[in-house]
Write a structure and sequence with these properties.
Layout (H helix, E strand, L loop, with lengths): L1 E5 L4 H12 L3 E5 L10 H7 L5 E4 L6 H6 L1 H21 L4 E7 L22 H20 L3 E6 L1 E3 L12 H9 L5 E4 L5 E2 L1 E3 H10 L8 E5 L5 E2 H11 L6 E4 L14 H5 L8 H15 L3
Parallel strand pairs: 1-2, 1-3, 3-4, 4-5, 5-10, 6-9, 7-12
Antiparallel strand pairs: 8-11
Helix pairs in contact: 1-7, 2-4, 4-5, 6-8, 6-10
Length: 293
């Protein structure tokens, strides 16, 4: 079996490629870091010849960068997805599995969030991911392409970037806790998130290769919630840190409550295996050993 992974050099992509290769699958990394661009439709068409499936993760993902470059964000995340789907259709690729985002839900208060919930993105990143979903479902309906869209919630794990103030909460908290630095929380910290370990995400993408999931949107999450304040406390305890929690003014763009309804994922045998405590311990161990000092 041959799988093309767009964005294979990214945090999730590297984990997916490692898993595929461990299963004896030929994984092709189609990434800017390997000199391949999803906006280059000609090369994309050539590279997708003879592949059995595409796992599409390439995207602009840093929310603050997306806000600064909305046109480029839409071009990469929406048009880039259309290029991937067009190449897949032209080359009769068996399956296309697309990484979407829980950002499409926005501040929807009807939690846990079902895939049928109203989508109201708060930012250009979420909007671009929603547009990519619409394009994907159109290809599924109009051209019979077997497409699955995974709405991924908050992913964490070893190897995640903690170098920017805009990095995700878990790597940023761990990195600072190991240095006994303050953990900064915006607002009261009672905002909740649904975290999923990156190994679970990789396993779910892999399992989709054998699933009959064409034309579906599925949440990829733990289905469990924790407040940012409790997360910070848990990380301080797990790292034996002397860090203090510092509160800064709330950010208007922050989602207040987020947790996934996992009924559809469970029906599709895609329930995650890692509890938050186990995932955090593995991530902390990686940061102690491997993270830049």
């Amino acid at each position: 079996m041959k799988i093309l992974v767009t964005g294979g050099s990214g945090f999730i992509g590297t984990n997916i490629i490692a898993l595929l290769e461990s299963k004896g699958i030929d994984a092709i990394n189609y990434d800017l870091k390997t000199c391949f661009d999803i906006l280059d439709s000609k090369t994309l068409l050539e590279k997708t010849k003879g592949v059995d499936a595409i796992m599409h993760l390439a995207a602009k993902v840093r929310v603050h960068e997306c806000e600064e470059n909305p046109a480029e964000t839409l071009r990469v995340n929406a048009l880039g997805t259309e290029n991937v789907l067009c190449a897949a259709a032209e080359n009769s690729v068996g399956k296309v599995i697309i990484a979407s985002s829980a950002a499409v839900y926005g501040n929807n208060p009807n939690i846990p969030l079902k895939e049928t919930a109203h989508a109201a993105p708060l930012n250009i990143y979420g909007l671009s991911k929603l547009a990519a979903e619409k394009i994907a479902l159109n290809y599924s309906e109009r051209r019979g392409l077997h497409v699955t869209c995974f709405r991924i919630f908050n992913v964490y794990g070893p190897g995640q970037d903690a170098s920017s103030p805009y990095s995700a909460a878990i790597p940023l908290f761990i990195s600072r806790a190991l240095r006994n630095q303050d953990l900064v929380i915006y607002g009261d910290g009672l905002q909740t998130r649904d975290f999923i370990y990156v190994k679970d995400v990789a396993n779910i993408f892999f399992s989709a290769l054998n699933g009959a999931l064409g034309g579906k949107i599925i949440n990829v999450a733990s289905g469990k919630t924790i407040s940012i304040l409790d997360l910070a406390k848990q990380i301080i305890t797990a790292t034996n840190s002397e860090s203090k929690i510092k509160h800064e003014p709330a950010r208007n763009s922050d989602i207040k409550q987020s947790v996934a309804d996992m009924a559809l994922a469970s029906q599709s045998s895609m329930a995650p295996a890692f509890a938050l405590e186990q995932g955090l311990n593995e991530t902390i161990a990686w940061f102690r050993k491997c993270a830049p000092s």
